[in-house]
Design goal:
The chain has 658 residues and is an alpha/beta fold. It has 23 helices and 27 strands. It binds alpha-methylisocitric acid (MIC) and iron/sulfur cluster.
């Protein structure tokens, strides 16, 4: 029996019949494919974006990576393109030099949002894609297994290392029927979020099946897999079928098609059923993507701003829909409507087919092909405003305005709001005609740079402007981990609260400066307190670290000396990031103990007990002991003890070289 057969012998037979199981099996390097088991898989493709990419490539330097070993790796510049001063521009030049050095394709600022461009140009059915962005599962729309991770994990994958993850349980989402006019793919994922909430997908993956699947195009499927991230799921995947082939034909990549479907007798661990014919327009209310209601429930609410775009809803079909609905009409004078095309190719086709003119004539403001307002890069709403966005996240303050009320909807609903000035169920706007989709998408490559060959790459110098600071490695874990509680937080704390983006995005490659804003939205005094006390502990509720993959939400607290986070539960990517940067992730054995720790309490933990997982936090202030636990593998414990994965790997590399 060859090695591959041997490691698949004990795999869960149910899992092996699913699309996700088949891709995992093909890429399995280590471990037994059973839900909950730790496995390692090989990675075919990687992507990074500028806001996480600079640190990822700084880490690649520390790791001593010389050239990408993947089939394809792309570095995108899409999050921060404003260049208010030298900082951002420095990052872009650094990224360009790193792409040339490591052999990565560079998608320059303005070329488009990473997930949209990747779907159009690079994602392939049956492949694995690891991205330093939580919406990497967008590629699942084409049958590719996309997983979001921290930059360090992506840097390791670029260097040819396998990626480790817990084998997810598979939730089968059965689609039947067909969407009614003015009901959209976005409403499908909002319906899934209504069922699962923002943590119902943790430890799981979503796989779509059933007769409704073939009624959805690839960009529609990608809208659905994109926002599966908001349930906390590891990934979301659609099968690769004739519809996938049509899409690949449309972008001149039909030779990359492979059929990939679940076996007829597949039994999923759980099944959710959605009848597309019965679906109504839905909307996520402030301030959570999981707070979903029918649009009709909030109809009539006055709207100040409408933003169309983001990696969830910026395909050609999305923007054509907007153009069709806006043609010959005018946006309400007191509403500001912005449109960010997902890619240069989408933008080009809008112009080529005349749709751009319809958008402009109706009063839409066309922004660059970037994340833009989605990550608080401009278009912050006025104080207390209502903003309806086709995006995927509406956490408090993410728009740049702390008291703005952000709703998330489909393009159809968003345009209806822009035309009427109030939240409006799009079904009252009259039926939208069948939109003729183009046979070909004319892919634009003027802003794409292919890397030089390996020999030439050796001559490339990394260009580091003054805003780019090296990553500092953390020291080893002491025997007694001691400190006070710096902050106590509630459930569902997002990484936007831990490490706000928006106006601080240009500080992503400057940890000492960025760290000054840790927890700022929750407690502006946090930085001063953490500095004064030389670090300490963080206490949190359920689903700590939901949302983005930004490793800065671990890296910057680690820089300030945060030693451990004790929470009721964690979001997947953030948990991995904490371990990577040497912060011990602990959960309460008894959730009620959350109430027995207060800000300022002095805590102590014996680090030797990490091995046996028989852990007690001594609350020195209250004179009590609190049982806690962790979910780390022996290798992760080793890394935590060394001061985090980066510290551990770089120490071992140095030892090998010396
Ligand atoms: C986001 O949507 O929050 C981001 C910005 O794309 C992040 C990555 C980041 O913080 O750079 C994500 O989703 O991972
Ligand atoms: Fe960009 Fe927003 Fe998508 Fe994040 S969610 S990648 S910020 S468009």
């Amino acid at each position: 029996m060859d090695d591959k057969k041997k490691i698949l012998r004990d795999a869960d037979p149910k899992l092996m019949k699913t699309v996700i199981g088949k891709i995992l099996a093909q890429h399995l390097v280590k471990g037994v494919l059973k839900p909950g088991n730790e496995i390692e898989i090989s990675i075919d493709q990687t992507l990074t974006q500028d806001a996480t990419g600079t640190v990822a490539y700084l880490e690649a330097e520390v790791l001593g990576i010389s050239r990408a070993k993947t089939e394809l790796s792309v570095s995108y510049i899409d999050h921060n393109t404003l260049k208010m001063d030298h900082k951002n521009a420095d990052d872009h030049v650094y990224l360009q030099s790193a792409a040339a050095k490591y052999g990565l394709i560079l998608s320059k600022a303005g070329n488009g949002i990473c997930h949209q461009v990747h779907l159009e140009c690079y994602a392939r059915p049956g492949k694995t894609l690891l991205g330093s962005d939580s919406h990497t599962p967008t590629a699942g729309g084409i049958g590719c297994l996309g997983i979001g991770a921290g930059g360090l994990d992506v840097a390791l994958a670029i260097g040819g290392e396998p990626f480790s993850l817990k084998t997810p349980k598979i939730i089968g989402v059965k689609l039947t029927g067909r969407l009614k006019p003015m009901v959209a793919a976005k409403d499908v994922i909002l319906a899934v979020l209504q069922i699962l909430g923002v943590k119902g997908g943790v430890g799981k993956a979503l796989e779509y099946f059933g007769p409704g699947v073939k009624t959805l195009t690839v960009p529609e499927r990608a809208t659905i897999t994109n926002m599966g991230a908001e349930t906390g799921a590891t990934t979301s995947v659609f099968p690769s079928d004739e519809v996938t082939l049509d899409f690949l034909r449309c972008v001149d990549r039909e030779e990359q098609w492979v059929r990939l479907e679940a076996d007829d007798d597949t039994e999923y661990d759980e099944v959710i059923e959605i009848n597309l014919s019965r679906l109504v327009p839905l909307i996520a209310k402030p301030h959570s993507p999981g707070d979903v209601a029918p649009v009709s429930d909030v109809a009539g609410t006055k709207v100040d701003q409408v933003c169309i775009g983001s990696c969830t809803n910026s395909s050609f079909k999305d923007l054509m829909t907007a153009a069709y609905m806006l043609k010959g009409k005018r946006v309400k004078p007191d509403v500001s409507l912005t449109i960010s095309p997902g890619s240069m190719s989408v933008y080009y086709d809008l112009a080529e087919h005349g749709y751009l003119a319809d958008l402009i004539a109706a009063g839409a403001r066309i922004l660059e092909c970037t994340c833009g307002p989605c990550i608080g890069q401009g278009q912050a709403p006025r104080s207390g405003a209502v903003s309806v966005r086709t995006f995927n996240r509406n956490f408090r303050g993410r728009s740049g305005t702390a008291d703005a009320l952000v709703y998330l909807s489909s393009v159809e609903t968003a345009v209806s709001c822009a035309l009427t000035g109030v939240i409006t169920d799009p079904r009252y706007m009259g039926e939208l005609r069948e939109i003729p989709l183009p046979q070909k998408l004319r892919l634009q490559t003027a802003l794409v740079i292919e890397p030089p060959d390996q020999e030439e790459a050796k001559e490339v110098e990394l260009i580091r402007g003054p805003n780019i600071k090296p990553i500092e490695l953390r020291g080893e874990l002491p025997e007694k981990v001691k400190g006070s509680v710096l902050i106590k937080l509630e459930d569902n704390i997002s990484t936007d609260i831990i490490m706000p983006a928006g106006i601080y995005l240009a500080l992503r490659s400057n940890v000492p400066e960025y760290a000054k804003h840790v927890f700022e939205p929750a407690d502006p005094e946090f930085y001063k307190r953490a500095k004064a006390r030389n670090g300490g502990f963080v206490i949190a509720g359920d689903n700590y670290g939901q949302g983005s993959s930004r490793e800065h939400a671990a890296l910057c607290p680690s820089y300030l000396g945060v030693k451990a986070v004790i929470a009721k539960s964690f979001a997947r990517i953030h948990l991995a990031n904490l371990i990577n940067f040497g912060i011990i992730p602990l959960t309460f054995k008894n959730e009620e103990d959350y109430d027995r720790v207060d800000p300022g309490d002095e805590l102590q933990l014996d680090s030797a007990a990490l091995d046996s997982n028989d852990l007690m936090i001594i609350n020195l202030t209250k004179g009590i002991e609190i049982p806690v636990q962790h979910n780390m593998t022996p290798s992760e414990i080793m890394r935590i003890k060394a001061g985090g994965s980066l510290a551990y790997i770089s120490k071992n590399n140095t030892a090998k070289q010396g």
